[in-house]
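During the first year of the project, the team set up a workflow for recording each protein of interest as an amino acid sequence followed immediately by a discrete structure-token representation. This format lets reviewers and collaborators read both layers of information side by side without switching files. As required by the reporting guidelines, we include two representative entries from the current panel. The first entry is reproduced here exactly as it appears in our internal archive.
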Amino acid sequence: MITTRRPLPPEYKREIPAGPTFYKVNEVLDSGKLNTICVSGKCPNRGECFSRGSLAFMILGDLCTRHCGFCAVKAGNPGGIIDWGEPNRLATAVAQLKLRHVVITSVARDDLQDGGASVFEACIQEVRKSSPSTIIEVLIPDFFAERAPLDTVLNARPEIFNHNIETVERLTPTVRSKATYRRTLDVLGYAAAHRGSKIKSGLMLGLGEGREEILQTLIDLRSAGCEYLTIGQYLQPSTRHLKIESYIPIEDFRRWEKEAFRLGFTRVASGPLVRSSYFADQLHSPETSL
């Protein structure tokens, strides 16, 4: 599928910052042979985040077994390979960078029996050993909503359990590969019932969703027990990805932020360049206003 890329509005353009922290983050990632969703997902904020020592590790390799229409991560078959040295290297990087809040996400690994849940567990355990005061946030695939892998991650007790719904129900079959809207709500609801982590999810706008559909998605997420919410603008990674149907006005993002708080979400980040892990430490901090 080849689509035309719409010109980026001026307010979406960012200069790539540089400085000692930026270079140190890259050095630590390179030496530890670690991936980030910031780079693999072509996040527009990666320069800014790296420059303030903020990043989202992407574990279980850089090949995803799913082919989502919005995502820049490479798709392929990892062949069941697991790098069991990765959790220790990740924990070492967290300690070296003195991260107060770490986000751990992954590619989808449908080639593994537990979807990679045991590696999430190992990463959480290793970070707790070397950086016991660090807040741990996980952003997981859906594990097909199977309870055993979900329990593996939840029983490791990350402070924040994140699973993105990404888009409204009508658009899910086009936007997300293998995932379903209702399964995502099931995963979030199951995690909320576990009562050990703050429950978080994220939504992209600009794919052709309607206002009533957005509102219904927020209602559904809140009903599932979701407490933290991110809302951002979909940006097309390449001409081979889903096209942008519209750029959402900043005023609309403010409106959806107010609506989310009205519905009972406790922490909300809503704006054109907001991503699931963007300023995740500040989203979790009750003392900080985003």
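The second entry, processed by the same pipeline in the following quarter, appears below.
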Amino acid sequence: MTALADETIGVVATRRVPAANVEAFETALRELKQVAAKQPGMLACDVLRGAVRDGEREYFVVYRFADEASLRAWDESPDRRTLVARVNALTIGGRRHELTGLEAWFDLPPGQLPPSRHRMALVTWVGIWPLVSLALWLVAPFLVALPFLLRTGVLTALVVLTMTYLVMPRLAKLAEPWLRPVG
């Protein structure tokens, strides 16, 4: 599988930490973030700290990788396994949720439901339609000499890269109020 075929993948991990372990957990988490930041394909890692309730603090660790292969390499690395074992020893339970494709484009606060699929599809179409139109108008004439599959491969790669890195991050931010679930 080539890099163009892979999709950005995000992971949200939640951990509950007893108040007595918070300092040690924070130290282990900082070390984990430092090691993760050096991994090929790592795009971002953020930590959201919840309120202390019933003698525990909930943490949300959100990280993104450029593609699933990079995430899997990180998941299987001995460094990660050692550090995660240290982190897990300081926590009470936790969950892990992976977000791929369109879901990973939309940042959600903890506990918020994802936008409806029809709204995500509409926002995605609003981004793709002008890109495909521009690519067909401006780029396609220069690719006429190429075989059909290569020509469509170049055009779709251009659209996917532009959507992923330029259009969708801005479009998702702009459409964020409309994408929030009603209820």
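For the second entry, the following points were noted during internal review. The longest strand covers residues 42-53. The chain has five helices and four strands. Both points are flagged for discussion at the upcoming steering committee meeting.
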